[in-house]
């Protein structure tokens, strides 16, 4: 089952049939394991991993460090959940270290990001400060290297 | 100039490799899916490559001790103890070589006098017989059989023993059959070796890639064998490091010293960059080996199942990354079958005869190929067999 979990995380173009072959399981075993994982929330969805540099219509992504003020009783959760619910926010986690939340946001352009930061995020009560980072180039995405090993000249017949 | 006159008779007497003949048929064809390779389809794990890069960055570009870096020999000694349960002193019982091929050549040249007989089992890796000849010894072949799962039988060794018998080469798991030898079979072979005072060259290059029974089984572990065995191992297969050319020999000091004499003049030492990579492989590369092994095993099971379903009967190979199906029922020789398969379906698999005469009737199919390619190749073989 470890192999199955690895396969579904690393490769999107998988049917139950091909997963079964590659994981060395029967199709029934794969289907029932996937069902269990879906039901218990281990697997949450099956989004494709998109290399956004290849898209005709470009989107702009950014990482935003956010410092927030913990609340009595609920700590960071209420505010973090509130921020996470915005559609523009792709991921939102609480971190140890210099900031509290790290958000990944996606918008149409730089202005969209700027607007989201100063018009939406920083106006939320409890948000102390934000710091926005724009990625320049992506080298690895969801475990997939975008600059892969070159096809070495592996000889077709060797002893 | 008549070059034939100039070239040594020994070298002149060695026929061209069957692999090379077949290679030339395959090369230049488009869209061929090759099941003909003898190496992993994985690139070397990144941490190992990184260690090689770092070694260059640090300026490690010198010769090393003839035996190899002491730190590497210590790592090898520790690894061999963990994996095989055998203890070798890194100071004088370990020699780092340029692949197992060099180690094999050194061992044969260190041991053989002209006319000494070296027993080996076929089908086998292509270099054994030529290496024996180049050591001016006489290759004595013992055919292994499909009904024994291509494991060498002690009584078949007995049958070819003469007063000149000196060395036995053993390679389990085997290239090209994927065969493994059981503990019992090895114990029987060991008795013959002790009885006839043979030295054994145990080529353990595929030992990590053992899927059935016990991994890390070696004839060296049998009673009376450590003193008469040169354990040959390397990094090419398990760590996917073929291009690094890293191998080693473990044996009693006298034998290592004899091999080292040749090695120091012919090779001086193995490349230091590769030695740095090898240390990383042994210290932190084992989890990657496990992952690759899992992947091979899944592909092995798939290939064996598909081949048997389509009537290409094959035993379950217990190790390495080869399946050795039988093609005799189609009334074609191995070579004819492989050639037709290549011409009609663009799938390359090596005729069994490239690995010895008793490989006739078989084909070596390597499953160290991407799963989707493997699937297409097997579909093509199925169609080919259906049309025969």
**Strand numbers in spatial order across the main sheet of chain A:** 2-3-1-4
Shape of chain A: extended
CATH class of the largest domain in chain B: Alpha Beta
Major beta-sheet overview of chain A: 4 strands, antiparallel
CATH hierarchy class name of the largest domain in chain A? Alpha Beta
List low-pLDDT spans of chain B. Answer: none
Q: Count the E strands of chain B.
A: 12
CATH superfamily of the largest domain in chain B: Type I PLP-dependent aspartate aminotransferase-like (Major domain)
Assign the structural class of chain B, choosing from mainly alpha, mainly beta, alpha/beta, alpha+beta, or little secondary structure.
alpha/beta
Give me the Rg of chain B, rounded: 21 Å
Helix content of chain A: 25-40%
Structural class by sheet pairing and helices of chain A = alpha+beta
Shape of chain B: globular
Taking the sheet with the most strands of chain B, its summary is: 7 strands, mixed
> What is the count of helical runs of chain A?
5
Question: Your description of this structure?
Answer:
The complex is a heterodimer of chains A (159) and B (388). In chain A, the strands form 2 sheets. Chain A has a 4-stranded antiparallel sheet with strand order 2-3-1-4. Chain A contains 5 helices and 6 strands; from the N terminus they run H-H-H-E-H-E-E-H-E-E-E. With 159 residues, chain A is of the alpha+beta class. Chain A is extended and about 65 Å long. The mean pLDDT of chain A is 88. Chain A folds into 2 domains: 2-39; 59-136, 2-Layer Sandwich (Alpha-Beta Plaits), CATH 3.30.70.920. Chain A has helices at residues 2-10, 16-23, 27-39, 77-84, 110-120; strands spanning 60-68, 89-94, 101-107, 127-133, 140-141, 144-145. Chain B has 388 residues and is an alpha/beta fold. Chain B folds into 2 domains: 3-44 and 287-386, Aspartate Aminotransferase, domain 1; 46-285, Aspartate Aminotransferase, domain 2 (3-Layer(aba) Sandwich). Chain B has helices at residues 3-6, 9-13, 18-26, 46-57, 70-84, 99-111, 128-134, 154-158, 183-195, 253-266, 272-284, 286-309, 334-345, 371-386; strands spanning 33-34, 94-97, 117-122, 138-143, 165-170, 199-203, 229-234, 247-250, 322-323, 347-348, 350-351, 363-366. In chain B, the strands form 3 sheets. Chain B has a 7-stranded mixed sheet with strand order 2-8-7-6-5-3-4, sandwiched between helices. In chain B, strands 9-12-11 form a 3-stranded antiparallel sheet. In chain B, helix 4 (46-57) packs across helix 11 (272-284). The model of chain B has no long low-confidence stretch (mean pLDDT 96). The interface between A and B is medium-sized, with 13 and 27 residues.
